[in-house]
Amino acid sequence: MRIRDCHWQQIESHLRNDDRVVLPLGSVEQHAWLSLAVDAILSEEVAVAAAEPLGVPVYPAQPYGYTPTYVAFPGTMSLRLETLLAVMGDLIASLHHHGFRRVLIVNGHGGNQPVAGLLQQLMAEHRGLQLKWHNWWAAPRTMAFVREQDPQASHASWMENFRSTRLPGVELPSSPKPPVDYARMALMDPQAKRTYLGDGCYGGHYQQPDAVMDALWAIAVAETRAQLEGPWLP
Q1: Residues sharing a CB contact under 8 Å with residue 111, sequence separation 6 or more, in sequence order
Q2: GO biological process annotations for this chain's record (predicted)?
Protein backbone atom coordinates (compact mmCIF):
# COMPACT_ATOMS: atom_id res chain seq x y z
CA MET A 1 0.00 0.00 0.00
CA ARG A 2 1.22 3.46 -0.86
CA ILE A 3 1.81 5.82 2.04
CA ARG A 4 0.14 8.53 -0.01
CA ASP A 5 -3.09 6.53 0.17
CA CYS A 6 -2.98 6.22 3.99
CA HIS A 7 -3.66 8.49 6.92
CA TRP A 8 -1.55 8.38 10.05
CA GLN A 9 -3.98 6.30 12.11
CA GLN A 10 -3.81 3.52 9.51
CA ILE A 11 -0.04 3.42 9.79
CA GLU A 12 -0.25 3.34 13.56
CA SER A 13 -2.63 0.39 13.31
CA HIS A 14 -0.42 -1.37 10.76
CA LEU A 15 2.60 -1.10 13.03
CA ARG A 16 0.85 -3.13 15.72
CA ASN A 17 1.19 -6.20 13.50
CA ASP A 18 3.98 -5.57 11.01
CA ASP A 19 7.12 -3.42 11.26
CA ARG A 20 8.19 -3.75 7.60
CA VAL A 21 8.29 -0.77 5.25
CA VAL A 22 9.76 0.07 1.84
CA LEU A 23 11.67 3.25 1.00
CA PRO A 24 12.36 3.64 -2.75
CA LEU A 25 15.33 5.71 -3.87
CA GLY A 26 15.72 7.12 -7.36
CA SER A 27 17.30 9.88 -9.38
CA VAL A 28 16.30 12.59 -11.83
CA GLU A 29 18.77 12.43 -14.69
CA GLN A 30 19.05 12.06 -18.43
CA HIS A 31 17.74 8.81 -19.87
CA ALA A 32 18.11 9.55 -23.58
CA TRP A 33 14.58 9.51 -25.04
CA LEU A 34 12.87 8.38 -21.84
CA SER A 35 11.61 10.39 -18.86
CA LEU A 36 14.18 12.21 -16.76
CA ALA A 37 12.51 10.59 -13.73
CA VAL A 38 12.98 6.97 -14.87
CA ASP A 39 14.85 5.89 -11.74
CA ALA A 40 12.37 7.47 -9.34
CA ILE A 41 9.37 6.12 -11.26
CA LEU A 42 10.60 2.55 -11.52
CA SER A 43 11.97 2.22 -7.99
CA GLU A 44 8.59 3.22 -6.57
CA GLU A 45 6.50 1.21 -9.01
CA VAL A 46 8.43 -2.03 -8.54
CA ALA A 47 8.28 -1.52 -4.77
CA VAL A 48 4.51 -0.98 -4.82
CA ALA A 49 3.89 -4.02 -7.02
CA ALA A 50 6.08 -6.17 -4.77
CA ALA A 51 4.64 -4.97 -1.46
CA GLU A 52 0.94 -4.80 -2.34
CA PRO A 53 0.07 -8.50 -1.75
CA LEU A 54 1.91 -8.36 1.59
CA GLY A 55 0.13 -5.23 2.82
CA VAL A 56 3.46 -3.50 3.46
CA PRO A 57 3.51 0.31 3.15
CA VAL A 58 5.66 1.96 0.48
CA TYR A 59 6.84 5.54 0.72
CA PRO A 60 7.02 7.89 -2.26
CA ALA A 61 10.43 7.57 -3.88
CA GLN A 62 13.15 9.91 -2.71
CA PRO A 63 13.52 11.33 -6.23
CA TYR A 64 16.89 13.05 -6.09
CA GLY A 65 20.11 11.07 -5.97
CA TYR A 66 23.82 11.37 -6.65
CA THR A 67 24.45 11.93 -10.35
CA PRO A 68 27.05 14.67 -10.95
CA THR A 69 28.25 12.90 -14.07
CA TYR A 70 25.09 13.93 -15.98
CA VAL A 71 24.77 17.58 -14.98
CA ALA A 72 25.68 18.74 -18.49
CA PHE A 73 22.32 17.30 -19.64
CA PRO A 74 19.55 19.86 -18.92
CA GLY A 75 16.97 18.64 -16.42
CA THR A 76 19.35 16.47 -14.41
CA MET A 77 19.31 17.15 -10.66
CA SER A 78 22.12 15.96 -8.40
CA LEU A 79 22.63 16.12 -4.66
CA ARG A 80 26.12 16.25 -3.24
CA LEU A 81 27.04 12.86 -1.84
CA GLU A 82 27.17 14.15 1.73
CA THR A 83 23.71 15.64 1.25
CA LEU A 84 22.23 12.38 -0.01
CA LEU A 85 23.76 10.44 2.87
CA ALA A 86 22.36 12.96 5.36
CA VAL A 87 18.90 12.85 3.77
CA MET A 88 18.76 9.07 3.80
CA GLY A 89 20.01 8.99 7.38
CA ASP A 90 17.27 11.40 8.43
CA LEU A 91 14.54 9.48 6.59
CA ILE A 92 15.57 6.16 8.09
CA ALA A 93 15.80 7.71 11.56
CA SER A 94 12.20 8.89 11.12
CA LEU A 95 11.08 5.38 10.19
CA HIS A 96 12.80 3.94 13.25
CA HIS A 97 11.24 6.61 15.50
CA HIS A 98 7.75 5.54 14.41
CA GLY A 99 8.43 1.85 15.06
CA PHE A 100 9.47 0.47 11.69
CA ARG A 101 12.24 -2.03 12.27
CA ARG A 102 12.58 -3.90 8.96
CA VAL A 103 13.28 -1.47 6.14
CA LEU A 104 13.83 -2.42 2.51
CA ILE A 105 15.46 0.30 0.42
CA VAL A 106 14.64 -0.29 -3.24
CA ASN A 107 17.26 1.60 -5.22
CA GLY A 108 16.80 2.54 -8.87
CA HIS A 109 20.07 4.36 -9.63
CA GLY A 110 23.60 2.98 -9.67
CA GLY A 111 25.12 6.29 -8.59
CA ASN A 112 23.35 5.97 -5.23
CA GLN A 113 25.42 2.92 -4.29
CA PRO A 114 27.45 4.80 -1.61
CA VAL A 115 24.27 4.92 0.47
CA ALA A 116 24.52 1.14 0.87
CA GLY A 117 27.71 1.70 2.84
CA LEU A 118 25.78 3.82 5.33
CA LEU A 119 23.45 1.03 6.39
CA GLN A 120 25.77 -0.69 8.87
CA GLN A 121 26.34 2.62 10.63
CA LEU A 122 22.61 3.30 10.85
CA MET A 123 21.90 -0.16 12.25
CA ALA A 124 24.55 0.46 14.91
CA GLU A 125 22.93 3.78 15.82
CA HIS A 126 19.30 2.62 15.93
CA ARG A 127 18.49 -0.29 18.21
CA GLY A 128 16.68 -3.20 16.60
CA LEU A 129 16.83 -1.73 13.10
CA GLN A 130 17.30 -4.07 10.12
CA LEU A 131 18.08 -2.54 6.74
CA LYS A 132 18.24 -4.19 3.31
CA TRP A 133 19.58 -2.61 0.13
CA HIS A 134 18.08 -3.85 -3.16
CA ASN A 135 19.20 -2.66 -6.60
CA TRP A 136 16.08 -3.92 -8.31
CA TRP A 137 17.35 -3.77 -11.91
CA ALA A 138 20.59 -5.59 -11.03
CA ALA A 139 19.04 -8.46 -9.07
CA PRO A 140 20.35 -11.81 -10.38
CA ARG A 141 17.30 -13.12 -12.25
CA THR A 142 16.31 -9.69 -13.52
CA MET A 143 19.74 -8.97 -14.98
CA ALA A 144 20.06 -12.49 -16.36
CA PHE A 145 16.82 -11.99 -18.31
CA VAL A 146 18.09 -8.66 -19.66
CA ARG A 147 21.34 -10.27 -20.81
CA GLU A 148 19.47 -13.11 -22.50
CA GLN A 149 17.53 -10.61 -24.58
CA ASP A 150 20.31 -8.14 -25.33
CA PRO A 151 23.85 -8.47 -23.92
CA GLN A 152 24.59 -4.81 -24.73
CA ALA A 153 21.58 -3.38 -22.87
CA SER A 154 22.54 -0.63 -20.45
CA HIS A 155 21.57 2.82 -19.18
CA ALA A 156 18.64 4.41 -21.05
CA SER A 157 18.15 1.42 -23.33
CA TRP A 158 15.10 -0.83 -23.61
CA MET A 159 15.69 -2.29 -20.14
CA GLU A 160 14.31 0.97 -18.70
CA ASN A 161 11.71 1.53 -21.42
CA PHE A 162 8.46 0.60 -19.67
CA ARG A 163 5.00 2.06 -20.23
CA SER A 164 5.48 4.32 -17.21
CA THR A 165 8.77 5.80 -18.46
CA ARG A 166 7.91 6.40 -22.11
CA LEU A 167 7.00 9.86 -23.31
CA PRO A 168 4.03 10.47 -25.63
CA GLY A 169 4.95 11.53 -29.13
CA VAL A 170 8.63 10.62 -28.76
CA GLU A 171 9.94 8.32 -31.48
CA LEU A 172 12.89 6.13 -30.49
CA PRO A 173 15.74 5.06 -32.79
CA SER A 174 15.03 1.77 -34.52
CA SER A 175 18.64 0.52 -34.58
CA PRO A 176 20.62 -0.53 -31.52
CA LYS A 177 23.42 1.67 -30.24
CA PRO A 178 26.95 0.23 -29.97
CA PRO A 179 28.19 -0.07 -26.39
CA VAL A 180 30.19 2.79 -24.96
CA ASP A 181 33.80 2.58 -23.80
CA TYR A 182 33.31 2.58 -20.03
CA ALA A 183 36.98 2.94 -19.14
CA ARG A 184 37.35 5.96 -21.39
CA MET A 185 34.09 7.49 -20.25
CA ALA A 186 35.09 7.19 -16.57
CA LEU A 187 37.80 9.81 -17.16
CA MET A 188 35.47 12.38 -18.71
CA ASP A 189 34.06 15.49 -17.08
CA PRO A 190 30.29 16.05 -17.48
CA GLN A 191 30.55 18.14 -20.67
CA ALA A 192 32.93 15.70 -22.34
CA LYS A 193 30.64 12.85 -21.34
CA ARG A 194 27.64 14.57 -22.91
CA THR A 195 29.56 15.08 -26.15
CA TYR A 196 30.68 11.46 -26.17
CA LEU A 197 27.28 9.95 -25.36
CA GLY A 198 25.20 11.97 -27.77
CA ASP A 199 21.62 11.06 -26.85
CA GLY A 200 22.76 9.59 -23.51
CA CYS A 201 22.11 5.89 -24.07
CA TYR A 202 24.98 3.58 -23.13
CA GLY A 203 24.21 0.89 -25.70
CA GLY A 204 21.79 -1.76 -26.83
CA HIS A 205 18.34 -1.72 -28.38
CA TYR A 206 16.09 1.19 -27.50
CA GLN A 207 12.88 -0.81 -27.22
CA GLN A 208 11.50 -4.32 -27.01
CA PRO A 209 7.97 -5.76 -27.46
CA ASP A 210 5.64 -5.23 -24.53
CA ALA A 211 5.57 -8.99 -23.93
CA VAL A 212 9.31 -8.89 -23.20
CA MET A 213 8.92 -5.87 -20.94
CA ASP A 214 6.06 -7.51 -19.04
CA ALA A 215 8.17 -10.64 -18.49
CA LEU A 216 11.08 -8.54 -17.23
CA TRP A 217 8.78 -6.64 -14.88
CA ALA A 218 7.31 -9.83 -13.44
CA ILE A 219 10.79 -11.12 -12.61
CA ALA A 220 11.84 -7.81 -11.06
CA VAL A 221 8.71 -7.66 -8.90
CA ALA A 222 9.16 -11.26 -7.74
CA GLU A 223 12.79 -10.66 -6.75
CA THR A 224 11.86 -7.48 -4.92
CA ARG A 225 9.03 -9.23 -3.07
CA ALA A 226 11.39 -12.01 -2.04
CA GLN A 227 13.63 -9.43 -0.37
CA LEU A 228 10.67 -8.04 1.52
CA GLU A 229 9.49 -11.48 2.64
CA GLY A 230 12.83 -12.39 4.13
CA PRO A 231 14.94 -13.60 5.60
CA TRP A 232 14.84 -11.14 8.50
CA LEU A 233 16.04 -11.65 12.03
CA PRO A 234 13.34 -12.50 14.60
Answers
A1: 27, 65, 66, 67, 69
A2: riboflavin biosynthetic process
Q: Compute the distance between CA of residue 116 and CA of residue 73 in angstroms, rounded to an integer.
A: 26
Prediction pTM value: 0.97
Residue of 166, 155, 158 lying closest to 201 (CA atoms): 155
As a whole number, mean pLDDT of residues 78-87 equals 98
Residue 149 lies in a domain: yes
Residue 145: CATH number of its domain: 3.40.50.10310
CA 102, distance to chain mean position in Å, is 19
Query: Contact 191/69 with Cβ under 8 angstroms?
Result: no
Please report which helix (H) or strand (E) contains residue 51, including its range.
helix 38-51
Half-sphere exposure of 179 (CA within 13 A, CB side): 8
What does the pLDDT look like over 30-48, one tens digit per residue?
A: 999 999 999 999 999 999 9
Q: How many domains would you assign to the chain?
A: 1
Q: What type of residue is 67?
A: T
Full residue range of the structural domain in which residue 63 is found: 3-222
